[in-house]
Amino acid sequence: MRSDSVITHDFARACGEVSVEIKRQIGVLIDRSGYVTHLIVGNDQSIEIPHLDRVRVAQSRLRGLRLFHIHLKEDPLNQEDLMDLVLNRFDSITAAIVDSSGIPKYYYTAFINPDPESETPWLLGEKVFPGQLKEGYSEELFSLESEFTKKNSNFKNAQLTNRAFLVGVYEPRKMKRSPEHSMSELKELCKTAGIHVVDTYIQKKSADPSTVVGKGKLQEIILKSVHKDIELLIFDLELAPAQAKKISDASDLKIIDRTQLILDIFSKNAKSRDGKLQVELAQLKYLKNRLSELDDNMSRLTGGIGGRGPGETKLEIGKRRVEDKITRLENELDALRKRRELNRKARAKNEVPIVAIVGYTNAGKSTLLNALTNSTVIAEDKLFATLDPTTRRIRFPKEREIIISDTVGFIHDLPPDLSLAFKATLEELGDADLLLHVVDISNQNYKEQMEAVDGILNSLNLNEIPRLVIYNKVDSISEEFKESLRENEEILVSAATKEGLLELLEMIEHEIWLEKGSEILNPIG
Ligand SMILES: Nc1nc2c(ncn2[C@@H]2O[C@H](COP(=O)(O)OP(=O)(O)OP(=O)(O)O)[C@@H](O)[C@H]2O)c(=O)[nH]1
Ligand SMILES: [Mg+2]
Question: What's the fold here for domain 351-521?
Answer without folding.
Answer: Rossmann fold (3.40.50)
